[in-house]
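re: ur question from earlier - yeah i can do the single chain one, its not a big deal. heres the input i used so u can compare w yours
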Amino acid sequence: MMDRSIAIAHGNYLERGGAESLSDELARTFDAPLYFGFGDVENVSDDVDARSLYENSLFSGVKRSVFLRDLYYAWNAQQIPELTEYDVVILSKNELSWYVPEDEQVVIHYTHSTPRVPYDLFQQRANSLSSRLYAFVARTMFLPNTKFPDTFVANSELVARRLRRYWGVPEEKVEVVYPPVDVDQYESKKTQDYYLTYSRLIPEKRIDTIIRAFDGLDARLVVGGAGEQREKLERLAPDNVEFVGYMSESEKRRRLGEARAVLFNAMNEDFGIIPIEAFASGTPVLGVEEGYTKYQILNGENGLLHEPDPASIRTSIERFEREGVNWDADEITSFAERFSVDRFRKEMQAVVEKAVEAAAIEPYEEIDTQKTALTSNRDRSKQ
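and the output i got, formated as tokens:
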């Protein structure tokens, strides 16, 4: 790796999810400190040098409101003195993308997605005056930021398209590097008689639709995860649906390895770690035919696709009960290897090296080239 000082700059660490795990891995990959906005240092892995930017701010209370929090970032993240000492800054998520870089500083923006409600979920989610106003303001204010990074890294080909469409980022400035999944930590186990779904229990994951599909179905569903919809979902659930709450890593790996299949119904997912964790466990995924999920699932091979409604999910489960899928556990596990941590590290190191080389200023390169050409012409004329 080139001799460059590198820092990772992440947005919120208010909870721990796929983006937070990825930022931790970026810090490990480059042995770099990780700066973050609002959040709790306890949500960062113990082996990462985490440094909070705003937790002690007099305005830390704004983190409870998405709108006020975004306004705070838009103003305060423009100037982050802590980042100016580094040669390379890798942004993860969008909150700190307001940062105005030093003249020759290289900035790489790992983009998990463009903001959802202002762009790809606008038709579905901007259904009130306040949400439409927020979306309009966000679209207007974000565009100047898209000029700063030397390179954008998208977590999937779908997000790369969002970068080109919504932010107008030129194709030559966009790379795709899949998120890291520690695939070696998962393994197939003796199959038990239940299906599994897990995630944060929020509306975008559409767990309620999966639960409705099991009403009257001769099959069991285990629901893992915590979130704002827990009580509502429990009231909705029939007797063949069991809630187990937040799952530790060991419990999650066990259940992934022994479930008949994993059900995944998230709204227009930008990548989706859960299906990859299932594949690494040798377990098929019954997933929604939208977002990046429809590209992860090879219909009939490593899983089945359904529409995001109870009837279609029920049909998918019944088909799986009759036919299963074509790949066995070993073949499904092999498919997951393309999303490994080692692959992520190598590809991100290559992206940084390429960006640094492309940003290097060569002030006399053209003059030297012209000089060489003139000398060559003179030598030929003397012959």
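The CA atoms of residues 143 and 167 lie 6 Å apart. not sure if urs matches, ping me
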